[in-house]
């Protein structure tokens, strides 16, 4: 039996796709997206981090690869400081960086179908995060810091081993859609979880001594902030392509 395993080299087709996508991202007039999905990557190349940092990319798509970690040793998470959409679904990630909370611009995080055992506590620092998809992993619990995600609108935790929700989730007043495995839940009780998102939040608010209000009363500041940021991105307002991209990640990927 060998003492170590050599990393599998990408196929010629995957290597050419990576080169093409990297070149495309650097061309004059390129959009805000770096898409290096389906490139048979075992780690994200240093050049991808450099491209995101220098060109201030907003969308990084790395799904359907062989990633076991997000960061190679020589790279810093701060290179992704401008990223708003990070798609890592269909990889082999067992953990996310402890300092994930440094990605303060992040609005959409998709890590569906990985091997995650837990989420870092620093996830609570992602105050602009609106969509979190951790479907089909190996999570047994959520950190109580998810209660600090005050912009979160969509949360998918189905396909995990989670039986209890943190009571602090009651403080996420903007949550519109919570997907979970109701039959597996212990807290809140399965009958509450089966009744939908509003019932779950009403239960958690009551447990926390908070008065429940529907998320529509809390979303206006977030939507207004989105409008301001999109106006900064373009003199004529938000670019149509990026708006469509964000909508697809928030709606279709869950």
UniProtKB/TrEMBL annotation:
Keyword line: Leucine-rich repeat, Repeat
PROSITE patterns: LRR (PS51450)
Pfam families the record matches: LRR_1, LRR_8
InterPro entries: Leu-rich_rpt (IPR001611), Leu-rich_rpt_typical-subtyp (IPR003591), LRR_dom_sf (IPR032675), LRR_domain-containing (IPR050216)
Protein name (Swiss-Prot/TrEMBL): Leucine rich repeat and sterile alpha motif containing 1
Organism of provenance: Homo sapiens
């Amino acid at each position: 039996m060998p003492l170590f395993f050599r990393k599998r080299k990408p196929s010629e087709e995957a290597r050419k796709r990576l080169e093409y996508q990297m070149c495309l991202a650097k061309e004059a007039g390129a959009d805000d997206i770096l898409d290096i999905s389906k490139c048979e990557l075992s780690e994200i190349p240093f050049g991808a981090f450099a491209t995101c940092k220098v060109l201030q990319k907003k969308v990084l798509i790395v799904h359907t690869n062989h990633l076991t970690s997000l960061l190679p040793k020589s790279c810093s998470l701060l290179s992704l400081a401008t990223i708003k959409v990070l798609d890592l679904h269909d990889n082999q990630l067992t953990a996310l960086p402890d300092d994930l909370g440094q990605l303060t611009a992040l609005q959409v995080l998709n890590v569906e179908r990985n091997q995650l055992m837990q989420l870092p506590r620093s996830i609570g620092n992602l105050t602009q995060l609106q969509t979190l998809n951790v479907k089909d992993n190996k999570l047994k619990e959520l950190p109580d810091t998810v209660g600090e995600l005050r912009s979160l609108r969509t949360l998918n935790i189905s396909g995990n081993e989670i039986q209890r929700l943190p009571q602090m989730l009651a403080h996420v007043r903007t949550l519109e859609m919570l997907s979970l495995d109701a039959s597996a839940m212990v807290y809140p009780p399965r009958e509450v979880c089966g009744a939908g998102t509003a019932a779950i939040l009403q239960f958690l608010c009551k447990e926390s001594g908070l008065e429940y209000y529907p998320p529509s009363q809390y979303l206006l500041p977030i939507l207004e902030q989105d409008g301001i940021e999109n106006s900064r991105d373009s003199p004529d307002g938000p670019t149509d392509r990026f708006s469509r991209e964000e909508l697809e990640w928030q709606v279709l990927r869950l």
